[in-house]
Design a protein that fits this description.
Layout lengths: L1 H44 L7 E8 L1 H14 L4 E6 L2 E9 L2 H14 L4 E3 L5
Antiparallel strand pairs: 1-3, 1-4, 2-3
């Protein structure tokens, strides 16, 4: 009889521990899921998950890229950046969600910067 009581206590303890273990795993998974959702929000807000178009004004030396960017910034109120892709520095402007938006901006920019063209940067 004592063996049967001992056996029941062992089984009950095992079921309780297994239940707590599964609950802990679920909590860990919920925490990881929340972290992944936050990372996705950050990437989406930083345009790393979105497809977009930009206009490239120049590709070459850093000195010329900085000069051209400065000229562009004084003439237009469109965001511009210098991007390094070995071995060239590139001046990219705008951040357009559709090709149509990029084409419209290109009409204005092309009057002052004739060598500009539309690009669709890859995800790095």
């Amino acid at each position: 009889m004592h063996f049967f009581k001992f056996f029941l206590i062992i089984c009950f303890t095992g079921v309780t521990l297994t239940s707590q273990s599964q609950h802990t795993t679920t909590d860990k998974q919920a925490k990881q899921l929340k972290e992944l959702i936050e990372i996705k929000k950050e990437l989406t807000n930083s345009d790393q998950l979105k497809e977009f178009y930009r206009i490239q004004l120049y590709s070459g030396s850093l000195k010329e890229a900085e000069s051209l960017k400065k000229d562009f910034d004084t003439e237009f109120e469109i965001s511009s950046t210098i991007k390094y892709e070995s071995p060239y520095y590139k001046v990219w402007v705008g951040n357009y969600r559709t090709r149509l938006e990029a084409d419209r901006a290109m009409l204005l920019i092309n009057e002052a910067f004739e060598n500009a063209f539309i690009i669709k940067p890859g995800r790095n």
